[in-house]
C-alpha cells in the first residue's frame, strides 16, 4: 500500500487529499481569502504561505508527514510536454518558479510537492499539467508566422475522463477516438486520437468557446482596435480576456447557476447568453469531429457546467448526429493525480523526465 499526499492549488484555494492507494483518507479544500493572498505580488511568493497551510491541515487530520510514500502536485505552466507522470526535478522547479509559459496557481503544485517530499526523502511527481502538448503539426498554424497555436488545457481531467470512458467500455484509450469538452470556469475541447490530444483550444488565453469567466476566441480586428484605443492597459485587456470575460462580462457573475436562475425567472438576455455558450461549445465539438475525420467513438462532456441539464441538452441537440454523448459532470482531478502517481509507484509506468 502506498500513501500519497495530493496537492492541487487553485486561484483562491488549495485542494489537498491523502490517498492510501486509491482510497481517500481525506479530501479537503483549504480556502484562501483575498486578504490572505493580497501581500503576495506573484504566484510564487505564495509558496511558503500555502505550504504551511497544507502542513497544518495534515497535523489537524493526524496524518504524519513521515507516513507519506510520495507527494504529487498539479503542475503548472511549464514548457510544452507530452502527457503522463513526471518526476519533479531541478529543471522543472526552476521553470515553475519563473513560470516559463506564464503565471498559474498550479505552478505551485510541483514546487510544494517537491519540498514536502524532500523533507522525508520521498519522490514527488506532477501528472498531466495544463501544458500537455500532443498536437499534430498541422494544428499549430495560426495564419500568422509569428504566432504558433499552443496547447494549454484541462489535460488532467480530459485524460482522466477519457481513460474512465475507455475502461467502462472495456477498450484501451489508445485504441479509440474521442472529443472531450471540459466545461468549467474555462472551457477546453480536445480531439483525442488514439490516446493523444491532437488538437485543442488554448483555454487560458483567448481561444475556443466563451466560458463563465473567459472570452475564448474574439473577432481579432475589433480586439486590435480596442487594444489601441488608449482606454486600457495591457493588464486590463488580459483580464478582460481571462478572468473578467464571458458570462462574467455579461452579468458580473462566473457562476452559471446564477444564469440558470435568471433564465428561469424569465430573463431573456440571460437565456440567450447561456444558449450562446452551449452553441459555441457545440461548434468547437464539430470542429474536433472534422479533425478526427468523423471517426468519433464518443463525445464526453465534463466539468461543473455539465451538471446543468439544459446546458447539456442544448449541446446534445447539435452534436448527437456525430456520435454517442456521455456526460461525466464535475471533475476528479485529485483522484487523477493519485492514479498517475500510483502507476509509477506500482511500477506499471516509468516516471517521465522533464528536460
Ligand atoms: N448544477 C449546475 N448547473 C449549472 N452550472 C453549474 C452547476 N454546478 C456548477 N456549475 C458551474 O460550473 C462552473 C465551474 O466549473 P468547475 O468547478 O469545473 O470550474 P473550476 O474548477 O473553477 O475551473 P476550471 O474547470 O476551468 O479549472 C461554474 O460556472 C458553476 O456555476
Ligand atoms: C486552461 C487550464 C486550466 C484553467 O482553466 O485554468
Automatic annotation (TrEMBL):
Keyword Nucleotide-binding appears in the UniProt entry: yes
Principal location class: cytoplasm
GO cellular component labels: cytoplasm
PROSITE patterns hit by this protein: ACETATE_KINASE_1, ACETATE_KINASE_2
Cellular location(s): Cytoplasm
Matches recorded under InterPro entries: Aliphatic_acid_kin_short-chain, Aliphatic_acid_kinase_CS, ATPase_NBD, Butyrate_kin
Gene Ontology BP terms: acetate metabolic process
Coiled coil: none
Family: Belongs to the acetokinase family.
Protein name: Probable butyrate kinase
Species this chain originates from: Caloramator mitchellensis
Amino acid at each position: 500500500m502506498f500513501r500519497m499526499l495530493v496537492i492541487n492549488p487553485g486561484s483562491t484555494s488549495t485542494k489537498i487529499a491523502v490517498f492510501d492507494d486509491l482510497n481517500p483518507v481525506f479530501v479537503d479544500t483549504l480556502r484562501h481569502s483575498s486578504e490572505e493572498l493580497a501581500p503576495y505580488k506573484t504566484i510564487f511568493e505564495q509558496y511558503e504561505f500555502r505550504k504551511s497551510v497544507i502542513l497544518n491541515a495534515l497535523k489537524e487530520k493526524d496524518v504524519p508527514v513521515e507516513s507519506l510514500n510520495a507527494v504529487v502536485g498539479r503542475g503548472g505552466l511549464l514548457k510544452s510536454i507530452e502527457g503522463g507522470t513526471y518526476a519533479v526535478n531541478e529543471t522543472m522547479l526552476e521553470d515553475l518558479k519563473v513560470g516559463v509559459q506564464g503565471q498559474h496557481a498550479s505552478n505551485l503544485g510541483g514546487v510544494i510537492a517537491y519540498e514536502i517530499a524532500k523533507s522525508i526523502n520521498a519522490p514527488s511527481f506532477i501528472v498531466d499539467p495544463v501544458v500537455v502538448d500532443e498536437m499534430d503539426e498541422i494544428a499549430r498554424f495560426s495564419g500568422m508566422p509569428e504566432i504558433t497555436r499552443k496547447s494549454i488545457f484541462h489535460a488532467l481531467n480530459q485524460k482522466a475522463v477519457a481513460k474512465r470512458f475507455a475502461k467502462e467500455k472495456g477498450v484501451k484509450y489508445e485504441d479509440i477516438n474521442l472529443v472531450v469538452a471540459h466545461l468549467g470556469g474555462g472551457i477546453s475541447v480536445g480531439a483525442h486520437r488514439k490516446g493523444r490530444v491532437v488538437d485543442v483550444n488554448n483555454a487560458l488565453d483567448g481561444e475556443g468557446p466563451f466560458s463563465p469567466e473567459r472570452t475564448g476566441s474574439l473577432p481579432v480586428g475589433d480586439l486590435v482596435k480596442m487594444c489601441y484605443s488608449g482606454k486600457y492597459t495591457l493588464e486590463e485587456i488580459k483580464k478582460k480576456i481571462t478572468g473578467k470575460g464571458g458570462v462574467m462580462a455579461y452579468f458580473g457573475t462566473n457562476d452559471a447557476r446564477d444564469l440558470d436562475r435568471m433564465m428561469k425567472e424569465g430573463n431573456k438576455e440571460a437565456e440567450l447568453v447561456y444558449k450562446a455558450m452551449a452553441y459555441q461549445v457545440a461548434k468547437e465539438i464539430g470542429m474536433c469531429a472534422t479533425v478526427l475525420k468523423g471517426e468519433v467513438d464518443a463525445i464526453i462532456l465534463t466539468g461543473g457546467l455539465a451538471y446543468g441539464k439544459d446546458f447539456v441538452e442544448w449541446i446534445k441537440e447539435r452534436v448527437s448526429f456525430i456520435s454517442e454523448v456521455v456526460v461525466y459532470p464535475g471533475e476528479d482531478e485529485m483522484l487523477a493525480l493519485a492514479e498517475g502517481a500510483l502507476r509509477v509507484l506500482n511500477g506499471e509506468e516509468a516516471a517521465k523526465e522533464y528536460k
